[in-house]
Each structure stands twice: as C-alpha cells, then as structure tokens.
C-alpha cells in the first residue's frame, strides 16, 4: 500500500521528463527550420542580382538617372563629374534593391543627410561671415581652435583601433565598406556584405554593357561622318 504513491510519483516524473524532451526537440526543429528558411531567403536575394532581368531593370534605371546628370568631357571638373556618376549609379542600385537591405536604405538616406549637411554648412558660413564682419579676429581664432580638436579625436580613434584584435579590426573595416553597417554585429555585416558584393558585380556588368553600347554608337557615328567630310 505504501509503494503506490512512490510509483505514481515516478510515473509523473517520467512523464514530465518525456514532455521536456519533446518540447526541446520541437524547439530545436523550429529553430533549424527558421535558420533554413532564412538561408534560403538570403540565397534567393543574392541570386537575383545574377539574373539578366535584374540587370536590365538596373540598366534602365541607371540610364534614366544618367540622363539627368550634366556630363561634359571637355570640362576641367572631371573628378566631380565622376563622383556624380558614381553617386547616381549607387542610388539606382539602391532603388533596384527596393530598400529591402540595410545597405540600400543607407544609400537612399545618405542623399537626404548630405542635403541637410550642406544646408547646415551654408547657415554656419553665413553666421560666421556676419559675425566676422562685426569682429574679424574672433572668427579666425575660433576656427583655428576647432582644428586641433578634430585631429585629436582622429588620433584617439586610431589608437583604439590599433588595440583591437586582428579579427575585430577586419570586421570593423568590412563594416565601414558596406553602407549602413558601421556599428552592426558580425552576422549582419556578413549577410549585408554578401548581398552588396553580388549587387556590385551586377552593377559592373551593367555599366560595362552600357559603356560598350556607347562606344559602338560613337564609332558608328564617326564612320558615317567620314565620307561626308571627304
């Protein structure tokens, strides 16, 4: 009669153990399924940049954006024009990504931030010019005093970077190369870098194809104009 309560307790503990095991198995299975689905989504997003359809979409967006840029080969400001073409190509790439990735959102928002900084810079220049007209010497001293502080900050950041291990330094460099990933953890940086590299490869192919078409059209126009000149 005394053994029945202990037997019931043993049965209940075994049942609880079995329930815990089944819960752990279900949890592991759901986690593995989530990881697998995430990997499949990432592989699909990286593979889309390698398709001809995506290259055509990006090429059309790039041509539309380049048509709005004033490019003059005879102009002396060639670096500025090259920078403008690069910014247009990157924005078209971010538009083709539809802002679904962190790097594409960072490129799209960088233009807005740049405009805001330019407006702020203009306001500061206007305020400093108005202040220097009233007291010219004070504006020069304040400008000269702010320069060493910037150099000091840069030197501190470099010293901090030198003290990091080699792997962390490489991760930091990679995070700086990928837009919007400067302060992100390693899994996010690797995921964004994989997609960004695939997008850049597609960008190079599209721009090479456009450059080849332009060179062919220019050579064709030159060959047709030669008989007329003679």
UniProtKB/TrEMBL annotation:
Amino acid composition bias (Low complexity), ranges on this chain: 31-45, 126-146
**What is any one GO biological process for this UniProt entry?**
regulation of DNA-templated transcription
For bias kind Polar residues, which ranges apply?
1-19
InterPro entries, alphabetized: bHLH_AtIBH1-like, HLH_DNA-bd_sf, IBH1-like, IBH1_N
- Annotated GO CC locations: nucleus
Query: Taxonomically, which superkingdom?
Result: Eukaryota
The IBH1-like N-terminal domain is annotated at 53-111
Supply one GO molecular-function term: transcription cis-regulatory region binding
Q: What is this protein called?
A: IBH1-like N-terminal domain-containing protein
Native species of this protein? Dovyalis caffra
